[in-house]
Design goal:
The chain is an alpha/beta fold. It has helices at residues 17-23, 33-50, 63-72, 88-99, 117-126, 150-160, 180-183, 209-215, 227-234, 245-261, 263-283, 309-320, 346-362, 372-382; strands at residues 6-8, 55-59, 80-85, 103-108, 132-138, 140-141, 146-147, 164-168, 187-191, 203-207, 299-302, 322-326, 336-339.
């Protein structure tokens, strides 16, 4: 049946109908008063979402572009940075840093395991000469379904006294409580096609006062991604370059929906979806890739040991029109990932788990009692 695709991947995520309809409006001039009103509204609502009184800048980029902007605006060639890497995206930030001539130290963990905050503490405390200029890390490591302990790592960065913390929150912003001002986070990057519930194309960078102090002396090359330009023009409710106007329509509609739901409800919903999905997977006798207590609010990674991950994905797509994500790099074919980020409801989880049960039965997997996954998920939902 056409047009029944159900996206259960970490991005792009499902888009609400009212957001799609907002995008369908005729474009308006981006140098008009009407656009400035939209810019003013979405900027204020982005500050609400980020729990900050400081700048939240809007760029026409992917999440990678937002993080790259967050790195290059506040550092100089040869600066020493500490990069946390326990998945594809942590690896990427190390690669970006090296591409710009930064001196990169990495703190690693096996893919599927969270970063150890104690390793950050030890490195930062040993840096008595204050040569570490920034700590760069991914909060929700999408490639593995692991949530890193940002709050604790950030405390160690603050105790250092000099280093900035630059955080990829691409799949945790708007799914997990990240009080930017309360925690004193310096640079926080995210992307539109995740918890924001709109299509790809916009990146967001929240910038605190310590980062702006570093910006004044930073010497890495930048032009299109020069956040100073976005700050200057943003103060006048405009943009330095042509924005995707219709994505701003979408962002306006999505942020209004999010405000109506409320931050606490948004976070509680994502926690419920995560816990119900993990409970269902356990009930089906399938191994979870991320340990309990470190599951991402965006996605649950599963490492089946008695059935093929790609066969599961194939049948889910062909028979039920449900798209699951696969593994990346050396995990390709070894895991599958169930997205539960953004415009996802309890019903979506129950539907996906029911389809997964049917898929497993078709593949001859008999290590579960039919209905066990649905029952486990439903119990979490009922008690949440």
């Amino acid at each position: 049946m056409d047009d029944k695709l159900m996206l259960m991947i970490p991005g792009p995520t499902p888009v609400p109908e009212q957001v799609l309809l907002a995008m369908a409006k005729h474009p308006i001039g981006h140098r008009t008063g009407d656009f400035s009103k939209i810019m003013e509204e979405v900027t204020q609502n982005l500050k609400w979402l980020h729990q900050t009184q400081n700048d939240v800048l809007i760029l026409t980029v992917s999440g990678t572009g937002a993080v790259e902007a967050g790195i290059i605006n506040f550092l100089s060639p040869g600066d020493r940075v500490l990069v946390g890497s326990n998945g594809k995206f942590g690896d990427r930030w190390a690669q970006v840093s090296k591409a710009y001539g930064l001196q990169v130290d990495t703190i690693t963990a096996e893919w599927g395991q969270p970063l150890d905050p104690e390793q950050f503490r030890a490195k930062l405390e040993a840096d008595t000469d204050k040569t570490i200029k920034a700590v760069i890390m991914t909060h929700s490591e999408t490639s593995t379904g692991v949530l890193n302990d940002l709050e604790t790592i950030n405390r160690h960065v603050k105790a250092h006294g000099e280093a900035l913390i630059i955080v990829d929150t691409v799949t945790s912003m708007s799914a997990y409580n990240i009080p930017v001002d309360e925690w004193g986070l310096d640079v926080v990057a995210s992307g539109s096609q995740k918890g924001y519930m709109i299509p790809p194309g916009l990146g967001f960078v929240a910038v605190g006062p310590r980062a702006w102090e570093a910006y004044a002396t930073a010497k890495l090359p930048r032009f299109y991604l020069d956040l100073g330009k976005y700050k200057k023009d943003g103060a006048k409710n405009t943009t330095p370059f042509t924005p995707p106007v219709n994505l701003f329509f979408a962002l306006q509609a999505a942020l209004r929906m999010m405000k109506a739901e409320g931050l606490e409800s948004i976070f509680a919903r994502h926690q419920r979806l995560t816990h119900s999905t993990r409970a269902a997977i356990k009930a089906l006798g399938l191994p979870l890739f991320a340990p309990d207590g470190a599951g991402s609010p965006a996605i649950t990674a599963v490492a089946p040991d008695r059935v093929d991950a790609e066969q599961i994905r194939s049948i889910m797509k062909k028979r039920f029109d449900i798209a699951l994500a696969g593994g990346q790099d050396h995990l390709k074919g070894k895991i599958f990932r169930i997205g539960h980020l953004g415009f996802v409801s309890d019903r979506d989880i129950l539907t996906a788990i029911a389809a997964l049960e049917a898929t497993l039965q078709e593949l001859g997997y008999e290590s579960f009692t039919p209905g066990a996954g649905i029952a486990a998920a439903a119990k979490v939902i009922a008690n949440s």
